Structure formats: structure tokens, C-alpha cells
Amino acid sequence: MNKRHGSPYDRGSADSYYQRGPRPHYFKGDTYNSPEVLEAGMTEKEIREYFLGYEENENIRNFKEW
After folding, report:
1. What's the pLDDT at 28?
2. How far is the C-alpha of 66 from the C-alpha of 45, rounded, in Å?
3. % the chain with pLDDT above 70
4. What is the pLDDT of residue 57?
5. What is the pLDDT of residue 58?
6. How far is residue 60's CA from residue 37's CA, in Å, rounded to a whole number?
7. What angle do CA 38, 14, 18 make, to 5 degrees?
């Protein structure tokens, strides 16, 4: 599994960190500096990786303090 910045795993963990609801997506390259792929364009594997990143961060409760 690729955990690079912008990957499905990375975006899932970031959504959890910022306490956003889950919204599967990723970036083809660097986050916000490359094309975004939304859930409709993701493979089942990419969606699973997104939710793995989200759930792992939820489990360790590593959230941004506002």
C-alpha cells in the first residue's frame, strides 16, 4: 500500500485528523497540486486504503486540536 502524501490512505487519515466525515478521494500527485480523484473514479482497493487510513487514525485518536 502506498502511503505517500496525497494517496488514498493519506487522505483518509487526514480527513479523520481534521475530524471531517469520510469522503473517499485522493490526488494523483501532491495534495491540492495535482488532479483529485473522487470516489466514483476510485478502485475498490483505493477505497479500502482510504478507509484503512481513516479508521487507523480514528483508533489512535490523533485529532487536530482547534
Report:
1. 97
2. 32
3. 100
4. 98
5. 98
6. 27
7. 115
- Run of H or E residues at 37: strand 36-38
CB 19 within 8 A of CB 1: no
* C-alpha cell of residue 47: 477505497
CA 6/CA 36 separation, integer angstroms: 9
Domains of the chain by residue range: 8-60
**What pairs with residue 26 in β-bridges?**
37
> How far apart (Å, rounded) are the C-alpha atoms in residues 55 and 26?
16
pLDDT digits (tens, 9 = 90+) for 28-60: 999 999 999 999 999 999 999 999 999 999 999
Distance CA 53, CA 66 (A): 21
**Cell 487507523 sits on residue:** 56
